[in-house]
Design brief:
The protein is α/β, with parallel strands linked by helices. It has 9 helices and 13 strands. It folds into 2 domains: about 200 residues, NAD(P)-binding Rossmann-like Domain (Rossmann fold, 3-Layer(aba) Sandwich); about 80 residues, Alpha-Beta Complex (UDP-galactose 4-epimerase, domain 1), CATH 3.90.25. The chain is globular and about 55 Å long. Keywords: Cytoplasm, Decarboxylase, Golgi apparatus, Lyase, Membrane, NAD, Signal-anchor, Transmembrane, Transmembrane helix.
């Protein structure tokens, strides 16, 4: 099959491309390299089944493909808040352009949505039926509301034009190739430990997150794309940790004597987050396999290798 991956030079996109290439698909990576890097896809350059196009998805593009994995969008708060108007445009105009393309060429379209559509949830864990608790005017809104309108657009293209859609609500994902400076918690704690700096916990560290290893997530995305269910379907690892527990875990693995310091909690930071993955289990036969312990070991090894160069 010929498959387009928008945001393919990014963290999740490049792992997805690795899997698709190994399965002998023809893959087109579309990326403007805002947070993606050429090194993430360099091993496929020159392969006749692979093509990389530098393009900003807020502009339309004409291509012929069978499937579209739509991942392009900055995902970490530091990057999506750098130019919040652009973030909203990427989510709305970018998704509109990609759905228009899917409609024209009759391609199946998968949207990488997010647990952020649940905002600061008052239902725990979060099932897909929960409609969320999102601030429309806060500093996270460009991303959260952007993904919500992207979901709305996807379902309206499905109902109005018959586009085959799949919507994944991705929960916090980590692994090799995360940018060391993207401000996300796993990459921050690992980079800080490597640099001998104190680990920065925001607030008291009592807020919770559930961390999914990237290979599990990619597996879930592919099962969703290949299956018969539109979704939305939660994809994440339901093992829940407080941020302080995560800091202690990474410190103990990397640098047991390292100090943990506390910094102010950012505005609208969700207090708890854990996916209900009943649907993914029953409808897709998907279940995350990699424990946080093993996933962190892999991630730390790759960061150590990359950051020493
Ligand atoms: P990432 O920042 O590593 O990847 C995003 C990619 O999109 C980058 O390669 C970037 O250069 C590209 N991009 C950004 N704006 C673009 C534009 N206008 N035109 C073309 N390309 C553009 O992030 P990621 O963690 O790999 O996330 C991928 C997708 O998964 C995103 O849509 C994100 O919202 C979603 N997601 C990720 C997580 C997570 O924990 N990583 C959680 C929920 C949802
Ligand atoms: N966080 C932290 N220290 C850091 C970076 C993040 O305590 O150095 C916290 C952040 O406030 C949030 C959690 O870790 O409560 C997860 O943050 P991240 O940006 O990784 O993801 P998101 O908030 O989007 O779930």
């Amino acid at each position: 099959m010929r498959i387009l991956v928008t945001g393919g030079a990014g963290f999740i996109g490049s792992h997805l491309i690795d899997r698709l290439m190994k399965e002998q698909h023809e893959v087109i990576c579309l990326d403007n390299f805002y947070t993606g890097t050429k090194s993430n896809i360099s091993k496929w350059i020159g392969n006749p089944n692979f093509e990389s196009i530098r393009h900003d998805i807020t502009e339309p593009i004409r291509l012929e493909v069978d499937r579209i994995y739509h991942l392009a969008c900055p995902a970490s708060p530091v990057h999506y808040q750098y130019n919040p108007i652009k973030t909203t445009k990427v989510s709305f105009l970018g998704t509109s352009n990609m759905l228009g393309l899917a409609k024209r060429i009759k391609a199946r379209f998968l949207l990488a949505s997010t647990s952020e559509v649940y905002g600061d949830p008052d239902v725990h864990p979060q099932p897909e039926e929960y409609h969320g608790n999102v601030n429309t005017i806060g500093i996270r809104s460009c991303y959260d509301e952007g993904k919500r309108i992207a979901e709305t657009l996807s379902f309206d293209y499905h109902r109005q034009h018959g586009v085959e859609i799949r919507v994944a609500r991705i929960f916090n994902t980590y692994g090799p190739r995360m940018l060391e400076n993207d401000g996300r918690v796993v990459s921050n704690f690992i980079a800080q430990s490597l640099q001998g700096k104190p680990l920065t916990v925001y607030g008291e560290g009592s807020q919770t997150r559930s961390f999914c290893y990237v290979s599990d997530l990619v597996d879930g995305l592919m099962k969703l794309m290949d299956g018969d269910h539109t979704g939305p379907i939660n994809l994440g690892n339901p093992e829940e940790y407080t941020i302080l527990q995560l800091a202690q875990k990474i410190r103990d693995k990397m640098n047991p004597g390292q100090e943990i310091i506390f910094k102010p909690l950012p505005q609208d930071d969700p207090k708890q987050r854990k996916p209900d993955i009943t649907k993914a289990k029953t409808l897709l036969g998907w279940d995350p396999k990699i424990s946080l312990e093993n996933g962190l070991t892999e991630t730390i090894a790759e960061f150590t290798q990359r950051l020493k160069v």
